[in-house]
Design a protein that fits this description.
By secondary structure, the chain is α/β, with parallel strands linked by helices. The chain has 8 helices and 7 strands, in the order E-H-E-H-E-H-E-H-E-H-E-H-H-E-H. The protein is globular, with a radius of gyration of 16 Å.
Length: 228
């Protein structure tokens, strides 16, 4: 049975010194260990995370969210953790929602449980609502299952399944790649409602560059569908 002591948290960060300590402290009550992957921050993110009780892994220069998650997942597996909670370090994900992910994983046996903000998304900026809804519809069609909030980075993931999938995305397209990889391997992806939190934080997504990357990734994913 999945217990908090057997669960780790992975928090990829880039310049999140304002929020990371609070996030780490709140997450620690739900998991056995917190890994913060500082993706080349130029501020005091690493120091604040360490002071709050996280184990910090630092990339000397920014390599992207996907690369930071890969680093965190490998660290968890090496330490003996087989399940991890993934969440952002800017305060947009409420650690109080973690038990809902655990309960869903226990109940359904799904190796991937994703947060769903779309049921009550009035606080989400209009552009993000539109883009997320469009991407989610497109990915749902490809995966042949409903993926209502494909861009949410708040997730519970079985690291043994992840390690067998050979994921390579280094940037924000990692959220989509994980969904299609799990679905393509025959796994049902489950979703749980979570709080929608938006404050003064600035998104690390570059609207132009990351959108181009996402479409390039999608084209490569659909132009040569692997054999089942």
């Amino acid at each position: 049975m999945l217990e908090s002591a057997n669960l780790a948290a992975i928090i990829p960060c880039l310049n999140e010194q304002a929020a990371i300590a609070s996030v780490v402290r709140d997450v620690r009550s739900h998991v056995g260990r917190v890994y913060v992957v500082d993706d080349g921050s130029s501020d005091a993110t690493a120091a604040r995370a360490s002071e709050a009780g996280a184990e910090v892994i630092r990339h000397p220069t920014p390599r992207g969210k996907g690369a930071a998650l890969q680093t965190g997942c490998m660290a968890c597996l090496t330490a003996g953790y087989t399940t991890a909670i993934l969440l952002d370090g800017d305060g947009q994900h409420d650690p109080a929602d973690i038990p809902a992910f655990v309960e869903c994983a226990r109940r359904t046996g799904s190796p991937l449980v994703v947060g769903n903000r779309m049921g009550d998304n009035a606080a989400m900026p209009a552009v993000r609502r539109f883009v997320n809804a469009w991407m989610s519809r497109r990915l749902s069609e490809i995966a042949s299952q409903s993926l209502p909030d494909s861009q949410c980075g708040f997730r519970l993931m079985d690291l043994r399944v992840w390690s067998a999938l050979g994921l390579k995305a280094a940037n924000f397209e990692i959220e989509s790649e994980v969904l299609l990889a799990f679905a393509g391997a025959g796994h049902r992806v489950e979703f749980v409602p979570i709080k929608v939190i938006y404050g003064a934080e600035r998104s690390k997504i570059n609207p132009l560059i990351d959108t181009i990357r996402w479409f390039r990734w999608l084209r490569s994913r659909t132009s040569h569908k692997p054999e089942e």
